[in-house]
Amino acid sequence: MAEAHARPPARRRLLVSGLLLGLGTAGAVDEIVFHQLLHWHHFYDRASGAAGLVSDGLLHAGTFSAAVAGMALLADSRRRGRFVPVLWWGAVLTGVGAFQVWDGLVHHKLLRLHQVRYGVDLTGYDVGWIVPGVLLLAAGVALLLRARARPVPAT
Amino acid sequence: MTAAALGVLLAAGTGYVAATWRCRSPWPLARTAAWLLALAAAGVAVAGPAQAHHDLRAHMAGHLLLGMVAPLLLVLAAPVTLALRALPPAGARRLSRLLRTPPARRLADPLVAVPLNAAGLWLLYGTGLHTALAGRPALTALVWAHLLVGGYLATASVLAVDPAPHRRPVAVRAVALAGGAAAHDVLAKALYAYPPAGTVGAEAGARLMYDGGTVLTLVTAALLWRRWYVSRDAVRAAARPA
């Protein structure tokens, strides 16, 4: 049993894969839902200043790069026969939740780089963005804690 | 001016094809095709849109062809590998010694080549240099060469198709690629928000730069990780019982 637990590299690779894909998915959902479907956000919102431009560009490049890297690491974990669904899904949800909470608290409220929507009272929108983020993050962490008790399958 | 640039591209194409005949082992046709397509892309850019300094949209189409599409295809054509196989032994030894010199190694490092390429772009668009190019053929040629060579060095350092001494780990190369993409995205948004004086079509041009850059970076990232996945080291590590 101790031996089954003593394989940190395989676990770490799967964890990193899930986190990266979670961040990538959250970034993609953010762009598809808010930019393409709802049109609440635009390529450039006059309300956001230079810091908003920089954070947008960084986030866009960072999230799609993370998604590609996450898929490659997932393929490698599967090839090694080290796929643990509960660990991977926990990491994905943690990644999505972390993105949303970070975006909601740091970008929207702390730094005020951009907002969920413009020209309306934000309270409802902020709650609607941050609370699901916290729930996703909590669910992810709960799954990760459960995964700690399970051994990585032997090859 | 354009004729001279097209002449250089033609010479590069002829040289590559001649080298494939002299190559000591059969040379994959796909690589030759990549090289010729790259030169065609660069030729189209030089002959047409890259000359439009004031119409940012046409200019960006040329910029994408010359600075991203052509370099990616040039890298996939593995010109250094071909040169090493086609040159006579003494020449090949000299080339491989040259590649091991400190300056060459630094230029092959993604942590140097990618920031240099991004800095060149910011200089070009951030300082209004690119509108100053109109009517200055020598300066224009220099900028074209910089776009193509800078793009090639950055892509080559990330993808590492040709042999390179002391290659950086895949994660470092992926981060360098993402960093370059971020600089490209931020520049595109900045051009949209603050269009350079004396240009039209800035908004469409910036969108084209942003979307085109995203697509090409995604393709490059996919190639990078695919090459890692099938690399001898990764396959061996996966087969090894832990």
From TrEMBL, chain A:
Domain of life: Bacteria
Membrane-spanning residues: 52-74, 86-107, 127-145
Keywords, ordered alphabetically: Membrane, Transmembrane, Transmembrane helix
Keyword field contains Transmembrane helix: yes
Pfam name, any one: DUF2243
Name of the protein described by the UniProt record: DUF2243 domain-containing protein
From TrEMBL, chain B:
One Pfam short name: Caa3_CtaG
Keywords, sorted A to Z: Cell membrane, Membrane, Transmembrane, Transmembrane helix
Location(s), subcellular: Cell membrane
Entry keyword annotation includes Transferase: no
Keyword Cell membrane applies: yes
Sequence intervals crossing the membrane: 29-52, 64-87, 107-126, 138-161, 208-225
Topology with respect to the bilayer: Multi-pass membrane protein
Protein's name according to its UniProt entry: Cytochrome c oxidase assembly protein
Organism: Geodermatophilus maliterrae
Upper taxonomic lineage: Bacteria, Bacillati, Actinomycetota, Actinomycetes, Geodermatophilales
